[in-house]
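Give me structure tokens for this 61-residue protein.
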Amino acid sequence: MSGKKLSVTMTKSKNGRLKAHQQCLKGLGLSRIRQVVEVIDTPENRGMINKIAYMLRVEEV
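Here you go.
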């Protein structure tokens, strides 16, 4: 699991969302719609992704 990465795309706006959900986006490095970041597949990142899954598209790299 050390070398596994995930490609995470923000698909919905953070405006009007819960503060905790906005912080998850910030923690993943996302700030704009359609922005794509690659994150390492760790339990911490998976937890943030699962919390805001309705705003993201996730693909394994």
